[in-house]
C-alpha cells in the first residue's frame, strides 16, 4: 500500500551503513541459494524455515531436518524469501530505513537489533499459530522492528514513497508508517488467512519500539538538529 523510496536524512555518525548492507547481501545470497542452489526451495525452507509446530515439539520433521537446532530457525528463517517480489519489498524497506537506524546505534548493535526483532517476531507468530505446520520465512519481522525504531527516532522526517504502489507522495514518517502499521494490525486481526505472517510484523514492530531506547546512542546530534529545525520552520 505504501512503498518507501527515499527519506533524504544524511548519516551523521558513520560513513557507510555496513550492517544494513551485510543484511541485504545475506538475504540476496540466501535467495539465490534457495532457488539456484543444490537443495532447491522445498528442502531449504524445511531446513531453515520456522515451523511453529516443530518449534514447540508437536510435530517432527523427517530425519536430517531442520539443518540447524530448531530454536535457531527463529533467525535463519529471516533470510529466506518465497519470491523475488517478497525479497525486493523487504529489502526496499530495509534500505530506506535501516541506514538511519544503524546510524543511531552503530553497526554491531544494529545487526543484533535486527536479529532480536526478527526472532521475537517469529516467536509471536509461533505462539499465535502454535499448531501450524506452514513455514514462516522472510525478513519482515526484523524489518518491522527497524520501521518502529525509525518512527521513534525521526517521526517528522518526510518520506518519498508510492501510495497504492503508483501515486508518488511525500509524507511525514508518522503518517506513512502509521498507515503501514494500521494495515498490519487490521490484516492480523480482521483479515483472512492469506499466508502472510501479520502477527510476526506486529511482534517485530513492538520489539523495535521497546529496544530502540535501550540500543540507540545516548544522544543523537542529527535527531536533535532535525527537531530544532522543524520547531523553527513556519507552519
Automatic annotation (TrEMBL):
Would I find Protease among this entry's keywords? Answer: yes
Q: Which Pfam families match?
A: Rhomboid
> Out of the domains of life, which is the source?
Bacteria
Where does the sequence pass through the membrane? 21-39, 78-98, 110-128, 134-153, 196-215
Supply the alphabetized keyword list: Cell inner membrane, Cell membrane, Hydrolase, Membrane, Protease, Transmembrane, Transmembrane helix
**Membrane topology annotation:** Multi-pass membrane protein
Its predominant location is membrane
* GO terms classed as biological process: proteolysis
**Domain Peptidase S54 rhomboid: residue ranges:** 73-216
Q: Which GO terms describe its molecular function?
A: peptidase activity
Q: Where in the cell is it found?
A: Membrane
Enumerate the InterPro entries for this protein: Peptidase_S54_rhomboid_dom, Rhomboid-like_sf
By what name is this protein known? Rhomboid family intramembrane serine protease
**Organism, scientific name:** Microvirga puerhi
Amino acid at each position: 500500500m505504501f512503498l518507501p523510496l527515499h527519506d533524504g536524512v544524511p548519516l551523521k555518525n558513520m560513513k557507510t551503513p555496513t550492517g544494513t548492507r551485510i543484511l541485504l547481501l545475506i538475504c540476496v545470497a540466501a535467495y539465490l541459494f534457495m532457488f539456484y542452489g543444490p537443495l532447491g526451495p522445498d528442502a531449504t525452507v524445511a531446513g531453515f524455515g520456522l515451523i511453529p509446530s516443530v518449534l514447540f515439539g508437536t510435530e517432527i520433521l523427517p530425519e536430517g531436518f531442520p539443518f540447524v537446532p530448531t530454536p535457531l530457525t527463529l533467525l535463519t528463517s529471516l533470510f529466506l524469501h518465497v519470491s523475488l517480489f517478497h525479497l525486493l519489498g523487504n529489502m526496499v524497506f530495509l534500505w530506506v530505513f535501516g541506514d538511519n537506524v544503524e546510524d543511531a546505534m552503530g553497526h554491531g548493535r544494529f545487526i543484533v537489533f535486527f536479529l532480536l526483532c526478527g526472532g521475537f517476531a517469529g516467536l509471536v507468530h509461533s505462539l499465535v499459530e502454535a499448531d501450524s505446520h506452514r513455514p514462516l520465512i522472510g525478513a519482515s519481522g526484523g524489518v518491522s522492528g527497524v520501521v518502529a525504531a525509525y518512527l521513534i527516532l525521526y517521526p517528522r522526517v518526510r518520506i518519498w514513497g508510492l501510495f497504492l504502489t503508483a501515486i508518488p507522495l511525500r509524507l511525514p514518517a508518522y503518517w506513512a508508517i502509521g498507515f503501514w502499521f494500521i494495515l498490519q494490525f487490521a490484516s492480523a486481526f480482521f483479515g483472512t488467512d492469506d499466508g502472510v505472517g501479520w502477527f510476526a510484523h506486529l511482534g517485530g514492530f513492538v520489539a523495535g519500539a521497546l529496544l530502540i531506547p535501550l540500543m540507540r546512542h545516548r544522544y543523537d546530534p542529527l535527531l536533535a538538529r532535525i527537531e530544532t529545525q522543524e520547531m523553527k520552520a513556519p507552519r
